[in-house]
Amino acid sequence: MEGAGNAARGPCRTEGPVGGETLRSAGAALLIPAPFWCPLGQKGSGMNKFAMLLNLAVARAPESVAALWFTGRRKVVDGRRIDAKAQALGELFNAIRVPGVIPTIAESRASLRILADKFDTPSPASVTKRDVTIAGGEGERPARIYDTRPDDTSRPTLVYIHGGGWVQGGLDTHDGLCGQIALEAGIRVIALDYRLAPEHVWPAGPDDVLAAWLALMAAPDAWGIDPARMAVGGDSAGGNLTAVLMHDLQVRGVVLPKLQVLIYPAVDSRGETRSMEVLKNAYVLPRDRIDWYMDQYVPAGIDRRDPRISPIFSPHLAGQPEALILNAGHDPLWDDGNNYHAALREAGVASRLHSFPGQVHAFVSARRAIPQGAEATSVVSAWLREKL
């Protein structure tokens, strides 16, 4: 999940960059289009514009500068002190957003694309990319293949499922991350573009992911993959869909991947964990936006404890693939990761939990601003290289 709550929402009517200005940060021009900052225009405050500029500069500054800026002002939750760069990015989000106001679907999607463009690193030039189509739940869906050895066959492969609250995101928003994993892990990455809510509500997303996996396993030679060396992974909502796929494959009794990678996954829709309460006003992903995502994704009247929505309730955890779970200490989904790790281990599944106590939600998608995003990417890549 990444960016909007059960609150008033409406289109942004202000156009162009903030105040018609070019925002400058760390000595470089940075133009922020309207879909990302539009709630700021509704605030109409010069002080808020100043706060946005200031926090943008800190977010783009070296880590030592951010640490100095937030000296004595770093947030602490349950003993976990936030990383200075994460706080800078969070303060930028707070300067942009209007409390209780949710952007339109189109604005939310545009904001995630802009976030990736401005704060993530691009896919490495040495990684070859190829856009293809793959089976979905209802017809073909876009996908993208990343590899440094595109002509090789029988490649170890990660199938990647992007985050974005089942509402946002796509191949472009996670392009840099997928390319970097392909390079560092030395594997093929196949990124999926599943149908998004609210145009396509649950179970469209899980159905698309399942159909894609079955298509890959039905024709591994055509895809140049080794079916014995496969991993599936994703971040946030993509982590949810990864865990749901494991449930679906167990139910069907069909081949599972060797590994699963869950980056701050959403696995329990009840929202009753301690981190959901103490971090309800968290940076980047506050509780109202989590609720809004779920309302877009799951139709009214559906039991949200269904394992295809909340995979922690799956009766088929035993026998699942070895897991790597990453979570962030200033993310309401912190306990989702902790609890799913514990549930897998209790079911006899090998699971490794790698925690980043000072980080916020979506930090892996902000590697240009947050150094630990690159560190987390390397953790995932090294694990995949070792295990596949």
UniProtKB/TrEMBL annotation:
Listed InterPro entries: AB_hydrolase_3, AB_hydrolase_fold, GDXG_lipolytic_enzyme
Source organism of this protein record: Pararhodobacter marinus
Annotated ranges, domain Alpha/beta hydrolase fold-3: 158-364
UniProt keyword Acetylation, yes or no: no
GO molecular function, one term: hydrolase activity
UniProt-recorded name of the protein: Lipase
SUPFAM superfamilies reported in the protein's UniProt record: alpha/beta-Hydrolases (SSF53474)
Keywords (A to Z) from UniProt: Hydrolase
A Pfam family this chain is assigned to: Abhydrolase_3
